[in-house]
Each structure stands twice: as structure tokens, then as C-alpha cells.
Amino acid sequence: MLSFVEENYLKAIYHLSLNGKQEVSTNALAEEMRTTPASVSDMIKKLSQKSVVSYKKYQGVNISEDGRRLALHVIRKHRLWEVFLVEKLNFTWDQVHEVAEQLEHIKSPLLIQRLDEFLGHPKYDPHGDPIPDEHGNLIEKHRQPLDALSIGDQGVMTAVDDSSSSFLKYLDKMEIGIGSNIKVIDFIEFDGSMDIKVDDDKTLTVSSTVAQNILVAID
Amino acid sequence: MLSFVEENYLKAIYHLSLNGKQEVSTNALAEEMRTTPASVSDMIKKLSQKSVVSYKKYQGVNISEDGRRLALHVIRKHRLWEVFLVEKLNFTWDQVHEVAEQLEHIKSPLLIQRLDEFLGHPKYDPHGDPIPDEHGNLIEKHRQPLDALSIGDQGVMTAVDDSSSSFLKYLDKMEIGIGSNIKVIDFIEFDGSMDIKVDDDKTLTVSSTVAQNILVAID
DNA sequence: ATTAATATTTAGTTTAGTCTAAAAAAAATA
DNA sequence: TATTTTTTTTAGACTAAACTAAATATTAAT
Ligand SMILES: [Mn+2]
Ligand SMILES: [Mn+2]
Ligand SMILES: [Mn+2]
Ligand SMILES: [Mn+2]
User: Fold this and answer.
1) B33: Cβ–Cβ under 8 A, 6 or more apart, which residues?
2) Can you give the residue range of the structural domain that contains B25?
3) Cα(B121) to centroid of ligand 4, in Å?
């Protein structure tokens, strides 16, 4: 049985080993966890002891199959709770993450099974992230950062890469959300900003940073 | 801000100061918390520091007004979650307590406000216990242990005094629950057991222990 | 009012998780 | 290759919450 601190480390290791590939460095993990490399060194020894990661000194850490399963279980709970908060309790998508960080650590298989049923077995959370099933399988929808598209390309927004409240509120104000149709009208070399047309309606300019964090599917 | 361990101590102190009146002894608290008197001694110093209890050495501990408010807030959350689990997730009344023990420590004012709305501002939990409002006010329904009634008396079951799974499952099997009409047919001096008629229908015998834990309202 | 029994507190450890400072290894650079 | 820089680990301390054993205070009993 993992403590909730251990669960959080494992989640971070899982996320980092997706982006950065395989081994996760002590420093990267320390940054992600907002703690010190010394603390991380201690913790990965514990996690290694529990065989949820494998670890050789100075070689970074690799998540194990067991670890991956556990991480995905916590992520499943996190995302199901986010759906619950939005669908049933009328939270906005920028209000759910903090609360889900707490709820994801509740231990009760029955609770999650019933919550999943209650929500109608949702496949995606409010930010467009896929919800792993009880076996850890997830259907990753095609997703590409908006700033990778060229002028004339268009796609449907499927997710955000940044779930910070400030970014999500900005999108709300611009009336951009999951499902919006986005077409690239112009690309400004100078600063990487883009002119886009949303839902064949309004045209607006978004910064390079914004474009990087909007994920779209091109069909 | 209290840790979840401190919240549990405070809840226990609150409960004990209702039954046993005012001061709570170190030993009673240790037993309730399933820990040692030494640990309790340490903890009540901490709670006293945070002014949620008042405490003079060897004199037991008294909950403060602040402490009472905090305890009732945790109890409010516990009971609202129990209602949610039964009403929305189809848990049985004997399955909810353990999970609610975890959920009651989630910190989010918005969550509780919305949950309360979602549930339609329930006044009682699945065990018949009153749910404090956001200010800590609660409407204690009239409740009296069944074994205090005399032959011929009757009342409506309003709550249980023991929320253990085994007791609740027994009641389910006997088809006795909150709202059942119970009439005392006979009282056996020898062991304190009772013959009762439930809902003017079936007659059955319950032990003294069972009778103590069924709470009824006489009108 | 002493003495005995019980309740409570203190002292000293333990474990989980964190930190800073220092040592050691690995990687980068000259 | 030798040196410098960066990364990682170790050492030593700290806090929260627990425990056992010992000391002390309170209460009960003679
Ligand atoms: Mn989230
Ligand atoms: Mn999400
Ligand atoms: Mn309960
Ligand atoms: Mn209850």
C-alpha cells in the first residue's frame, strides 16, 4: 500500500517518463514535485524497495509495470473526480484540479466503480485527457499542439496541455474550448503568434505560448 | 489549519463530551482513538496550542467554541458524503462509514456547498444522524433507545446508535430500518430482550443489545 | 492519614517526509 | 586528458505522530 505522498511521486514519475522518455532524472523529479533533489533521492530508494520503480545510483529512475499500473489507477481516479465535479456539481474546468488532487487518494474500489457507472463511463476528463479504464488501458485521442499547424490547416480542439486556472479562464474569455473548430489563418514569424478562426466565426490572435497549449486533432 | 489526524482527535473529543459530559479524560480519548494515553497527552497539548481545546494538566480536556465549530464542520462533511454514497452511488448504509472517514477530510468549501445543493440540503444521514448546517447548527430529532420503552409503547425508528456493518446488516435481514414503526409487545426480565411488532406486521424478538442501539421517537 | 491503585505525563525512540550543507560521481569543457 | 561545472547522493537535523517504559499526580481504599 502506497502513502499519498508516494502516490504523488509515482504520478510525477509516470508523467515525466512519457514526455522525456524512459529514465527520469532526480533533478527533473525534484522540480516537478517542488522539493529538493535530496528528498527525491531518499524517496526513490523507498519506491524502489516497493518495486514500483527500478533504480541504479546516478542512473535516474524507471517506472515498473506495477508502478505504471498504480500511477494509472491514481490518474483514473483524478480524472473521474474531475468529470464528477464538472458534470454533477457545476464546477468550471479551472476549478477542478486542486480538489481532484485530494480526491484521487481516497481508497475504495467500490467508490470508483460506482462513480464511473454514475458518470456513464466517461472516456475523457474536462481537459480532454483520456481516463484509463480499470486495467490501465487508455485511448489517447490524436492530439497535436496548435503551433505545429501551418497556415490553412484546421482541426478540432481535443485537449489542453496546461490545466492552470489562468490559462483555462483565458480560453473561456476567448470562447475557445474542447470541441472548438480552429483554423490557422496566419502565422507571424516574428514571435510565433497566430491568427486563428474559431468555429468559422470569430478571428483572433493567440500568442505562441497559447498555441503550444491548445491541442487539436486533424482529421 | 488542522491536519487530518488533529481533525480526528477533535471529532472524538466532541463525541465524548456529548455522552460523558464536559471534560474528556486522556484514557477515554486514547481508547476512542485506539492509541496510547501518552500519544493523547502529546496531542492535546498541540490542540490546546491551537486553542481548539482547553486543557489543564491532569484535569482532562474541554473542547472550545472554535473546536466545536471545526468538529461539527468535519461531521457535516462526513454525513453529507454518506448521503451521497447511499443516494447517488447506491451504497448500502453499512458500506458508507469507512469511505466517509476518508472523504470528510477533503478541504474545499465550494465542494461541500455544491454537494449539499446536489443532495437537496439533506437534514439527516443514512443512520438517522442530523447533518449540521454550515454554521454548526443541528436539529437533533427526538431519539430514545428502544430498551427504554415499556410494554405497549410504540414509536418510529429515527436512528441507530451503532453504525457497525454487522449491526446494520442484521437490521437489514430483520427488515427494520429508519422509519419503521416499532411497538413493544413483551419485555423479558431475565435477559432484557424484547418482543416487538414492526410496521404492524411481523413480530420478532431482539436482544437487549440490539434494543439499546435502535433509537426511536415517541410522539 | 497513609497506603495502594489508577490515571496521566514525561523521557526517550521510531518512522515518514522534509530540509541544508557537504561529499562524490558524471558530464561538459578546455 | 585534465579541469570545471552540474547532478546526485550522503550526512545530519527537524517536525508530526506514534510507541514503550518510567516518573509523577490523583483517586480510592484501608
Ligand atoms: Mn487535473
Ligand atoms: Mn484533467
Ligand atoms: Mn459514519
Ligand atoms: Mn452516519
Assistant:
1) B8, B9, B12, B39, B40
2) 4-63
3) 16
- Kindly report the backbone phi and psi dihedral angles of residue A78, in degrees, each rounded to the nearest multiple of 5, phi listed first: -55, -50
Which residues neighbour A38 within 8 Å (Cβ) at sequence distance 6 or greater?
none
B111/A99 Cβ within 8 A: yes
Query: At CA A120, angle to CA A116 and CA A122, rounded to 5?
Result: 75
**Of the candidates B126, B130, B147, which has an alpha carbon nearest to the alpha carbon of residue B139?**
B130
Q: What are phi and psi of B203, to 5 degrees?
A: -110, 140
In the prediction, which pLDDT does B135 show?
96
Q: Are residues B125 and B162 in the same domain?
A: no
Among the candidates B63, B86, B102, a domain finishes at B63
Q: Is A115 on the interface with B (CB under 8 A)?
A: yes
Query: Please, what's the b/e burial string for B188-200 (b: 16 or more CB within 10 A of its CB; e: otherwise)?
Result: eeeeebbebebee
Q: Verify whether the Cβ–Cβ distance B102 to A95 is below 8 Å.
A: no
Closest CA to A125 of A99, A152, A155: A99
Question: In terms of domains, do A149 and A184 share one?
Answer: yes
Cα–Cα distance for residue pair B97/B127, rounded to 1 Å: 10
pLDDT digits over B5-41, tens only?
999 999 999 999 987 678 999 999 999 999 999 999 9
Contact (CB, 8 A) for B75 and B83 = no
Say what the pTM is.
Answer: 0.94
Give residue-wise pLDDT tens across range A20-69.
678 999 999 999 999 999 999 999 999 999 999 999 999 999 999 999 99
